[in-house]
Amino acid sequence: MIELHYWPTPNGQKVRIFCEEVGLDYQIVPVDIAKGEQFKPDFLAISPNNRMPAIVDTAPKDGGAPISIFESGAILLYLAEKSGKFIPTDVRGRFDAIQWVMWQMAGLGPMAGQNGHFNTYAPEKIPYAIERYVKETNRLYGVLDKRLADNEYIIGNYSIADMACYPWIVPHERHKQDINEFPNLKRWFETIRARPAVQICYEKGEAMRAGHTLMTDEAKKILFGQTARRE
Ligand SMILES: N[C@@H](CCC(=O)N[C@@H](CS)C(=O)NCC(=O)O)C(=O)O
Predict the structure, then answer these.
(1) How confident is the model at residue 231, as a pLDDT?
(2) What pTM was computed for the model?
(3) CA distances from 161 to 32, 105, 155, 225, 228 (A)
(4) 184: Cβ below 6 Å to ligand 1?
């Protein structure tokens, strides 16, 4: 069984999409990050960076003790390898998937994340920061659009690369991007949005979020005031 320590944010959704697509036996363990649950000692023991998602595989392939993993890209790779699904087995296909997952983890995710921060949450509107991240998000959309011109999905077939990227395109309006400028990306986005597993994740995510106000002043203090030493 896979314990998925999760909250319905883009990084959380990536892993849940995988679990739903494969029909894995998984159990959600909520980590309400606005309440600071990511700092609970039990969670830090499996995710020392105090970020979700994280997983615990209680029945790893080697038959040994449970394995815990943090970082959504590493989790996708682990689950894909374990299930033999959504990652090619040949060296070229496999590294094609890996390089696009890395691209998402190091580029699209962090840049779109800062875009969201400076557009939506920053207490002051800093034009330089907003412009910098809106432009960089736009550039990255262009990279994906180009890739999707000749490929139905990012590496040809539907894979963990698509699952990593899709949740970061969902907030395109909030990130000040006009998806109509990117016809291949738009086609891909709509195809993935229509997948039953993806729809289930977003429906369940909405239901989980209902009644939780993510961005109270207290939540902002928890999420955006972190230093090496927790007050
Ligand atoms: N690179 C990490 C990023 C994870 C991440 O930033 N998670 C956010 C929510 S999307 C979080 O847990 N934030 C809690 C906090 O900032 O304390 C991954 O892809 O797993």
Answers:
(1) 56
(2) 0.97
(3) 26, 10, 7, 31, 32
(4) no
